[in-house]
Design brief:
The complex is a heterodimer of chains A (372) and B (302). Chain A is built from 15 helices and 4 strands. Helix content of chain B is 35%, strand content 27%. Chain B is built from 11 helices and 13 strands. Chain B starts with a strand and ends with a helix. Chain B is of the alpha/beta class. The chains are: A alpha/beta (372), B alpha/beta (302).
Chain lengths: 372, 302
């Protein structure tokens, strides 16, 4: 016990004395939360549109006004020639061209139908989809508006026999930030715990201190606990700190039990720490371990469902995610914080993580040898 | 019973043999030196003795314990100072010492008498980070850390490499004091002048122990007569001497050359004559007493 306490004391002295590490541990939650949460949003604002109104009727002008009045759009320019708009698309000055052909109002009055053209920059398919959805919303709204106006309200009632009323649960305002904060927190504790452990033992190897430690009567379990516990504590501190920031800055709801959340996180961290320890045992230099760690981090993070729901990933990706620990915590933390899920709702993920923790720690313990 | 017994051990790294059938014994309380060039297998041998490496063949006993099977018991009895500085650079002098004392389940106070002479020299800097110490002071700290648990056998891998001459002398003075306290010491060094301070030395080359005895007896047993030659231009002297067919070996020794002849006799006058013909000035040729280095050079040439 005394030995472990001393190992811990030594690790903490070293961490606190490290002039790069300490500020990073404090600043990282701030920077990641504030920058990433605000930047990584899928809400579209100020979409630049280019209007080509070849009809110049009161109806076409009314439609353009609707777009201009929307906070989502910003009128980049207008002209009578579609080619001018294309230029703007190419230079990225406009995201969309609204092309109203000549005779728009006439066709609408005579034939009761008319066509419009939307040209959308779809390099980012996600964004293009959103722009299209927003535009459709405006156009169909306007469609109803003129239908009501022209037929004095008869058509409107006829056209909408079914009314759909939405109610968004767990995030009623569909606030993207509330969805992102828990995700960022997962990334935060993962980076801290994985990198710190992975670098730590390799550093002792590089400095040669491992040699000196190995000739002492320190027991394997003491050494491993001494290496894991400090980073477990730091990662939990980061989670608490990040949660506090999320609560204060973004008003993230904490519906579920924090005890359950921290309990699950401890098990999750054991998986990550064991993995980090294993990586550092099989590597010889900090550079090596950095590369390998980075590789796994990137794959696991992008597949974890931080930006895109895992449900919409292909079947094989979901199968790969069975071994992706980040995906588990990503799901659990959102369930607990936003939905208020209790242990009964997440026990399946919890036990999966628990088994995973045994495997990963077992691997690390098995691989750690004091003699070559 | 011997403090250390090494019986025909071999160790290979891939196809390279680092140790070949090495055998020797070290008596309790002995200061035993392992002398050899870089890559001779000194570190490998020490790593086997300190339980860090498992030999391919052979038997090892340190204080009666097998470093492979009984490493747990053995680790409490040995103090090891690796060749590279291997303490925590980001901990202070005192923290390092305290750390190693604690993991050996002891305290600085309990064994302070052992390290007093050494530690007192670095104590004024005890709040300084270990990485900010000079090379000599780092070695003193490393020795203190290796001694803090009162080991019975102290194993030091090239402790004076890269240390200035004064610190080297101080370091050896300390080893001699430790020897008086009954600690068995194994030390390796590439410096031949340090060999003379050991009770016994073993010369090692390419993984083989070539000779083992007290330094004085090794010198006594030097089989040839030795001459020393001096002139104003040592390098030219070396080249010219190599052309002189009577000589068996010529090698630089300080600012002069050591020579051995094929026969027991060397015609000094003729050699001087030859050198003067080659335009050497201040030529001196005389008989010399062999040193450990001469013995080592002789063995290497065989």
């Amino acid at each position: 016990m005394k030995t472990i306490r001393f190992l811990l004391q030594k690790e903490f002295i070293q961490i606190l004395r490290n002039r790069t590490m300490l500020p990073l541990i404090i600043l990282m939650p701030f920077i990641q939360l504030i920058i990433l949460v605000n930047a990584a949003t899928f809400d579209m604002k100020n979409i630049d549109i280019y209007v080509v109104d070849q009809d110049l009727s009161s109806t076409s002008r009314g439609l353009v006004d609707k777009f201009e009045a929307s906070p989502f759009y910003h009128l980049e320019g207008r002209s009578f020639n579609v080619e001018d708009g294309r230029e703007d698309l190419l230079t990225n000055e406009a995201e969309m061209i609204l092309n109203i052909p000549e005779g728009f109002e006439r066709d609408l009055r005579r034939k009761n139908q008319a066509s419009l053209q939307l040209l959308i920059n779809a390099i980012n398919g996600n964004a293009a989809g959103l722009i299209q959805a927003y535009s459709n919303h405006i156009i169909s709204g306007y469609n109803q508006h003129i239908a009501v106006e022209w037929t004095q309200g008869v058509a409107a009632q006829k056209q909408q026999p079914l009314e759909v009323v939405y109610s968004y649960w767990y995030n009623p305002e569909m606030n993207y930030k509330i969805y992102m904060v828990p995700g960022i927190l997962v990334i935060l504790v993962t980076i801290i715990s994985l990198f710190l452990t992975a670098m730590n033992i390799v550093r002792e190897k590089e400095m040669g201190t491992i040699e000196q430690i190995n000739v002492t009567p320190i027991k394997k379990y003491q050494f491993i606990i001494g290496k894991l516990l400090p980073f477990l504590i730091i990662a939990l501190f980061e989670l608490a700190f990040g949660l506090l920031l999320g609560r204060l800055i973004f008003d993230v709801p904490i519906v579920g039990s924090l005890w359950v959340l921290f309990g699950v996180t401890v098990v999750y961290l054991l998986v990550i720490l064991g993995f980090g320890l294993f990586l550092s045992e099989i590597s010889d230099s900090q550079q090596q371990v950095m590369f390998v760690t980075f590789f796994f981090m990137l794959v696991f993070i992008l597949m974890s469902g931080i930006f895109t729901p895992t449900e919409s990933m292909p079947d094989w990706a979901n199968k790969v995610n069975v071994i992706n620990p980040i995906a588990y915590l990503m799901r659990i933390i959102r369930m607990i914080l936003l939905k208020g899920s209790g242990f009964a709702d997440i026990w399946q993920e919890f036990y999966s993580l628990l088994i995973y923790a045994f495997l990963s720690l077992g691997l690390a313990v098995w691989r750690y040898r004091k003699t070559a | 019973m011997a403090a250390v017994t090494v019986d025909h051990i071999s160790k290979h790294y891939g196809s390279t043999a680092a140790l070949r059938q090495a055998s020797f014994e070290v008596d309790p309380g002995e200061l035993f030196g392992l002398i050899g060039p870089d890559g001779a297998g000194k570190t490998t041998l020490f790593r086997i003795l300190t339980t860090l490496l498992i030999p391919d063949q052979g038997q090892v006993r340190v204080r009666g314990y097998d470093p492979v099977g009984e490493y747990r018991k053995l680790r409490r009895l040995i103090g090891y100072m690796p060749g590279d500085f291997s303490l925590y650079g980001d901990l202070t002098v005192e923290e390092n010492l305290d750390f190693f004392a604690t993991i050996f389940d002891t305290t600085i106070e309990a064994n302070y008498h052992l390290i007093r002479d050494i530690y007192q020299q670095i104590e004024p800097f005890k709040r300084r980070l270990a990485k900010n110490l000079s090379g000599g002071m780092q070695q003193k700290l490393a020795l203190s850390c290796a001694l803090i648990h009162k080991p019975e056998v102290l194993i030091l891998d090239e402790p004076t490499t890269g240390v200035d001459a004064v610190s080297r002398k101080e370091f050896w003075d300390m080893l001699l004091k430790l020897k008086q306290q009954g600690i068995t010491i194994l030390v390796s060094t590439p410096y031949m002048d340090e060999a003379g301070l050991c009770d016994r030395v073993a010369l090692i080359q390419q993984g083989q122990l070539m000779k083992m005895d007290a330094p004085a007896r090794i010198i006594e047993a030097f089989p040839k007569k030795l001459w020393i030659a001096k002139a104003d231009h040592p390098y030219r002297l070396l080249l010219d001497l190599r052309e002189w067919s009577d000589l068996a070996a010529v090698y630089p020794f300080g600012d002069s050359m050591h020579l051995t002849a094929h026969s027991d006799d060397l015609d000094e006058t003729r050699l001087k004559q030859f050198l003067r013909e080659r335009n050497h000035t201040s030529v001196e040729v005389a008989r010399a007493n062999p040193t450990i280095e001469d013995c080592f050079m002789d063995l290497m040439n065989q």
